[in-house]
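hey
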């Protein structure tokens, strides 16, 4: 399986994340990918290549152009306004306020385009986000050209980013761009399976009213964890998209027997629908020792999950999402890939 990876992810490394009322070193940090790369090498995944330059056309077509311009220019505007630190949203539109009027002031704009304040923007964030989606695009082209699978080792991750909001460590939704590119290259039915511990709210939102991209997400129940305000089982899609969105929220302490039953159900729905290609939002924060999650998966469970996904026999692009037990992120990620290959 070819792996696409760009060193430019290192350009995004905020000094601080707002967590528990304190500024801490962000859980989403560059070393995550070092552990994954080391493990890939150790397990003989040696075909690791840098992606070609990002192709902006499919990104601007899918996402809000104003949002993309904001991401590109936010740092310069922030500095020009005399702000001393990294970009952190302090004021967001809440109940009773205007949701559709974009402020002129950069502090206000940040609030408009952000949904969660833990995520900081730095000088290198835009370039890193572009390098991340470039890996996803290269993986998509590789599979569209005939490979049975590819792994986009994306960082920053993407599945929490909507068409016009960042948060949850995500800026550009790599999996959504990948799915759209499969549609553009001729696939009529594209499935996105999100196994990250957190709900893939951004991906759900982008495809919520569409019947050509099916979305299924296994995640911590929103009444108990981020992103808190979305991810319930009764969110099934809207309009033409009704019946093409499947959420599997699970409570604190969920282990592999329940989690894998949800996975099997999602797989059955994707197969019954007749998906032609699959995009997997591959987070490994369902692991038992993950510092910001509450499922109980063991490392071997990730191998088994990969095997179940592989049995679908669909052309598949894996996009890296979360996973924060850094010393085990490599093992658990590669376990999924090995299980998939094994099937
Ligand atoms: Zn996650």
């Amino acid at each position: 399986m070819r792996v696409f990876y760009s060193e430019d992810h290192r350009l995004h490394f905020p000094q601080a994340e707002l967590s528990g009322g304190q500024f801490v070193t962000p859980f989403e940090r560059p070393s995550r990918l070092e552990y994954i790369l080391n493990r890939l090498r150790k397990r003989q995944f040696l075909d690791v290549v840098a992606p070609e330059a990002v192709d902006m056309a499919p990104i601007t077509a899918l996402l809000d152009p104003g949002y993309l311009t904001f991401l590109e220019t936010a740092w310069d505007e922030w500095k020009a306004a005399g702000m001393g630190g990294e970009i952190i949203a302090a004021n967001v539109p809440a109940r009773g306020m205007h949701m559709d009027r974009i402020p002129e002031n950069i502090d206000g704009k940040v609030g408009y385009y952000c949904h969660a304040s833990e995520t900081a923007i730095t000088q290198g964030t835009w370039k890193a986000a572009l390098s991340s989606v470039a890996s996803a695009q290269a993986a998509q082209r590789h599979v569209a050209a005939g490979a049975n699978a590819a792994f986009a080792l994306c960082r920053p991750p993407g599945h929490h980013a909507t068409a016009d909001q960042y948060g949850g460590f995500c800026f550009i939704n790599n999996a959504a761009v990948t799915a759209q590119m499969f549609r553009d290259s001729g696939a009529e039915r594209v499935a996105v399976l999100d196994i990250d511990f957190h709900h893939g709210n951004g991906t759900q939102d982008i495809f919520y009213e569409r019947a050509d991209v099916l979305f299924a997400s296994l995640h911590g129940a929103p009444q108990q964890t981020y992103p808190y305000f979305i991810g319930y089982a009764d969110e099934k899609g809207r309009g033409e998209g009704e019946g093409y969105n499947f959420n599997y929220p699970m409570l604190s302490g969920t282990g592999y027997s329940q989690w894998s039953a949800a996975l099997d159900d999602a797989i059955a729905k994707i197969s019954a629908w007749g998906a032609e290609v699959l995009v997997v939002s591959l987070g490994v924060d369902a692991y038992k020792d993950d510092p910001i999650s509450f499922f109980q998966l063991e490392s071997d469970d990730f191998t088994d999950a990969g095997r179940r996904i592989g049995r679908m026999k669909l052309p598949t692009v894996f996009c890296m999402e979360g996973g924060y037990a850094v010393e085990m992120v490599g093992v658990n990620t590669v376990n999924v890939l090995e299980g998939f290959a094994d099937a």
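The domain at 2-57+123-342 is CATH 3.40.800.20 (Arginase; Chain A). Residues 196-198, 283, 285, 321-322 surround zinc ion (CB under 6 Å).
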